[in-house]
Amino acid sequence: MGNPAPSWAHGPMIALDLETTDVDPHRDRVVTASVVAITPRSPGGPPEVDTRTWLADPGVEIPAEATAIHGISTDQARREGRPASEVVAEVAEHLAGVWGPTTPLCAFNAAFDLTMLDAELRRHHGRGLPLGGPVVDPLCLDRHLRPVRGWDDRRTLTAVCAHYGARLDNAHTSAGDAIAAARLAWTLARRHPDEVGLLDPRELHDRQVGWYLEQEHAFAARLERQLEQRIARGGEDEYTARTRDRIVGVRARAGAWPLLTGPARVG
Q: What interhelical angle do 174-191 and 157-164 show, nearest 10?
């Protein structure tokens, strides 16, 4: 028998995570960013892991709810952080140097992080984020492999790591979450070689475009069922109007992965 086909997960990969002021990637701001470069060494040996982390002063107040998650307060960001314009430019420059056609970028809910970074670059520098290579999103992969069952089936990083037994250290820090995303990507590639691990990274990227489209349309359909039930109980109101707008937005940007044209959903 010949040697098994190599998996992209055994080659170099990049992992990205942002911690932010809130969950709208077009409106809200980056607080911390981490880019982790993972390079294999000798067979069976641990890879070389290079982690770069930035702390930004976002220029706006960090809500207490966000501080409770990632631990960075407005005072700390102003005291220890660097101007957001410098940080996002450096993150983009660093990505351009390490992310390429044969080196996938792993990010959990990649559409949020990449759209946020793109929006910040446009805000501060008038230019968008170029996609340097293929993207691997363990959240998109997991939703494809295990379709979401309903509103109580939330796919947080913590929950998905627990399901697959992937280690998550220092949760809600950008470095900890980035490394966990890479571990998840590696685990999914190993457990699902035909659907994930043995695909060319560019083909896997293209498939995720289609999977994300299906997932967002399924999410919109759940919203529509919820809307119909609410109208049947109490008629039209401000909430139902907002929900109609949300459904339109979800469907409009469903095909734009991984850089979204409107506010992204999370969870």
A: 40
Question: What's the rounded Cα separation, in Å, for the pair 62 and 194?
Answer: 43
The values of phi and psi at residue 235, to 5°, are: 80, -170
Q: What is the 3-state secondary structure (H, E, C) of 78-142?
A: HHHCEEHHHHHHHHHHHHHHHCECCECEECCCHHHHHHHHHHHHHHHHCCCCCCCCCEECHHHHH
Give the pLDDT confidence of 24-66 residue by residue, as tens digits: 999 999 999 999 999 988 777 788 999 999 999 999 999 999 9
d(Cα 255, Cα 153) in Å, to the nearest integer? 23
| Sign of the alpha-carbon torsion through 164, 260, 263, 244 | negative
Structural domains present in the chain = 8-199 (3.30.420.10)
Residue 60 DSSP symbol: S
Q: What is the pLDDT of residues 105-156, one digit of tens each?
A: 999 999 999 999 999 999 999 999 999 999 999 999 999 999 998 888 889 9
CB–CB of 214/227 below 8 Å?
Answer: no
- Angle, helices 138-145 vs 157-164, to 10°: value is 60
Q: How far apart are CA 145 and CA 248, in angstroms?
A: 26
pLDDT for res 264? 53
pTM over the 0.85 mark: yes
CA-based nearest residue to 211, from 192, 190, 183, 187: 192
Query: Hey, what's the torsion of the CAs at 63, 20, 164, 144, to 10 degrees?
Result: 110
